[in-house]
Every structure is written in structure tokens, then in C-alpha cells.
Amino acid sequence: MVEEVKQTDEQLVQDTGRSQFSDLWKKEDYWAIWLGGILLLIGLIVFLPQGTSDINKQILEANTVLETEAAKAPFKTVAWYQAVDTKAKLKASNSSIGKKLKVLTSQPGKWTVNPFEALILGEDRSAVKNAKATKKFNDINHECQIALQLALQAQTAAGAVDFQNMSLNKSAEDAIDNWRRTSANASKAKKNTKIKAYNLLPSLFLLMGILALFFGVGLKVMGGAFWKFIPGFCFVFAIAVVAYMASNNQTMKQYGIGYAAWAILFGLIISNTIGTPKWVMSAVQTEYYIKTGLVLLGAEILFGKILSIGIPGIFVAWIVTPIVLLTTFWFGQKVLKIPSKTLNMTISADMSVCGVSAAIATAAACRAKKEELTLAVGLSLVFTSIMMIVMPAVIKATGMPFILGGAWMGGTIDATGAVAAAGAFLSEKALYVAATIKMIQNVLIGIIAFFVALYWVAKVDREKGKKLSYMEIWHRFPKFVLGFITASILFSLLYEYLGKDMAYVVIDHGVIRGLTKNFRGWFFCLAFVSIGLATDFRQLKGYFKGGKPLILYICGQSLNLALTLLMAYIMFYLVFTDITDKI
User: Fold this and answer.
1) Which of 88, 291, 356, 425 could form a Cys-Cys staple with 32, CB 3.0–4.6 A?
2) CB contact at 8 A, 133 and 189
3) Which residue, 205, 327, 310, 287, is CA-closest to 480?
4) With a threshold of 0.85, does the pTM exceed it?
5) How far out from the chain centre does Cα 212 lie?
């Protein structure tokens, strides 16, 4: 009898081992890792060879100017910024193959009145748009040239006394900052003068076919029906295209209503009116799409960039965020008494960490319902749109230093894209600080997911008297996070190996901006469409009882805004002022 039990245990261990091994091609999380890894590998193969000796020579020449100018003045001079601009133009994505990939992964274009111009723009209309844009550029460029002359004059005046007069130095620095702002506006306006006639339909159809095959093969291996997936995917992709079209309307862009909100909205309209067709449901794969996108996001989390802000940024992102998360969750349970702990945790993580990405990882760790994830994401998108417009206005109106304002926005606005847009509205320094702190905060996605899984296994779902199961923690832990972390580590090491400048050319503006970031945008958009198509308002109605989710989000975000601002001020303006001066 003992021998039989022993054999049974051994067989169970073997079966468990085989099951764990087969998970590598049978589970969605692992397929997200493989698919994301394939795209990152393709990006490296395509763009690493673009780091030629000629580009390296131009980098060295620009760096010589930077060193010379840095030794000349106690502030960043006009020539210093011009050398920076020279390096900024060196991009692997500008190569011939980079331009072809850009066309392949292109979103619908901008439009004002006629939405079809987002897909097809004729020669006549492109000429009209260019003429209008050229007039606008000439006006802005004239302002830029005047600002440049004033900056040079102020710099010369400061240099005449060997930069010993603090007042003249400050005047020069302010004049140069003003020139940089007008220069950025002129650069943006100049891009609009080069609008060429286009027809995006062929590239969109090709992209749809590639992505259908890309995700369809994985679904087939996981046991899904490939030929049922294909027509459904075409439907989901078409809605994603329409969502991008809506977000690229000039008015919508002005108000910050992005593709994510439109994708969910269009999906919701279909699912709650005519109903999502059954033949589409096989392609409604929210987590499959977004997990693959999150693996790609890992390559954008570079530790070298995190360290560029240093300890102040780490305090703002890694100290405040857990405090807000835990406090908000406690508030939801003890004060608001939200019935669903999983809803409470998903909203708390969504609001405190980094929006949708954190919500997906946390929902997987605590096994939240799809309706709960949809509710959390919806709240996040609404408040992100509001905050990205209101916060820069508040910062300007109160005269808050832009570095402080950038840190504040980076730690509180949920979406990375919205953070960058809000930061750019203020200044280059604000954009740099905001984007870097958001990047530091994004690192917490995997850490939060692990501890949520641990807490749910140890406390929430653990039966009384039953031992803690470490294997259950492993089963609950979202495996795609391993891909996210691995991509972050590998690309951080590669970035350091190549050096900051060459990595900017072939990694930042090659692998990432030239390929994976574009694909990530499409994957996220497909996921948001899927969220809408899979959501029934009748199922969500119960969660809104008493308005508790909304109250939770508002109270948590209010705490987040207050603590982040306080921590940012202490770190950047009281404790580590030397780091602030170097930004």
C-alpha cells in the first residue's frame, strides 16, 4: 500500500512537471513573451547594423562641441543646444528600411473635417494643407529667429563679464529657454509642411494580415480555432482603425481624447446595442493583445535612464506609489466597504501605479472579473484625459517650477503618452522629468503584481487552517511580467554596452520608435476594442452601486496628487538640489 502511494506521488510530480513544461506553448502569458521577444529580435536585427561609422563620427563631433560649451558657461548655451539638436536628428528609423517599416505600422493620419483624409489624401488636398502649414511655419519660424537673436545677445552680455554676473546669467538662461520653446513649436510646424499624398489602405490591409497570422498561430497552438479567429480579428482590427481615426481628429487631439477611449467606446456601443457577433468573439482577446504589448513596453524601461534622475525620482515613484496603493485599498475596504476586493485592488493599482498596464497585471494576479477590469480602465482613461489638460494649466497659473511640475505629473497622470504630452506643454525639462519618473514608476508593474498574487494566496483566498501554497503563488503570478522584466534588463544592458548616444540612434529611434512602439500601440488598441466588445453595461451596473468606485478613484487620486507634490518638492528642492541644478 505504501509503495502504491509512493508511486502515485511520483506520478503526480511527473504529471505536474509535464504540465508546467507544456504551459510554455499552451498558455497565453508565455505566448505573449514569445511574440514580444520575436518582435524585439527582429528590431535588433534590422536596426543594430544602422549604427554606422559615419554616424559615430557625427556623434563625436557633436560631443566635442558639448564639452567645449559646458566648460565655457555655467548654463547650457545656444551652441550646446544646437549640438544636441544635431545628435537628435541621427535616427536609425530614418534609414530606407526604417521608413518602410514606418509605413507598414502607420496609424491613420490627421484630419479636420473629412475623416476619410485619415486614410487617403490626394495631391490637391496635400498641396492645400502644405500651403496653409507653410504660412503658419513661416510665422512661428520668424518668432523663433527673433528669440534666437535675443538669446545670443543675452548670452553675449553674460559672457562679456565672464559669466560672473548672476543676473545676466539668469537673463541669458531665460532667453535661451524661450528660444527652445519657440524652436520646438517651429520644428513641429515644419513637419506639417511636408505632408505628402498617401493611400494607407494597402499598408493597413497588409498589417491586418500580418497581425492576424501573428496572433492566430499562437491561438491555434493554444487550442483555439485559427480559421474562426481570422474573420473576427479583421472586425476587431477595423474598429481599431476607426478608433485611431477618431483620436487623430484635430479637435479630439486638442482635448486629449486618445485612441484608447475611442476603442472602448466603439466596442461598448456595438456590444450594448446590436450585440457583439458570435463569430467575432474568438478574436476578442483582451489579455492576449495587451500582455504582448506589455512585454514590448519592458524594452522601453531602461535602468540607465532611471538613474539619470537619480534618488529624487526613485523617492517620488517608489515611495509614494506603494503608500497610495495600500492606503486606497484600505480606504476602499474599511471606509467605503466595497464588496469586491478584486475590484478595489484593480482600481487602486490602476490609479496609483501607471494606469491600464498596472490594472491588467494586477487583475491577473488577483483574478479580477473582466467587468471589474473594464470599470477600472474606464475610470483611468476619463481622469487621464482631464489631468493631462488641467495639470499643466495649474502649474503655469501658480508659477510652479517646471521641474517640480514635471515630477508631479509623472507620478500622478496614469498613461505614459499623456504624461509626455502634458510635460511637452510646459518645457523640455518638464517633459524629461515627467517621462523619466513615469518610466521609473512603470518598473513597479511586475513588483506590484507579485505582491498582489502573494497577498491573495496568503490572505484573501486561503482557506482557514490550510498551509500556504507557494506553487499557487507561482500559478497566480502573471508570467508575462517575466517577459517584461527580461526585456527591461536585456535592453538596459545593451543600452549601456552601445553607449548613450549610439543607443539613442539604434535603440531609442530604431528598435523602439522605429518598430516595437508602433506595434505596441496597435496591440493596446486591439485590447481596448476587445474590452468594449466583451462588456455588457447590465453586468457593470451592480459595480456602480452608491458610486463607490468613482469615490475610491477620486479620493485615491487626491491623496496621490498631494503626496507626490510634497515628495517631489522635498526631494528636488530641499534634499537633492544639486541633481535638480543639473537637469
Assistant:
1) 291
2) yes
3) 287
4) no
5) 23
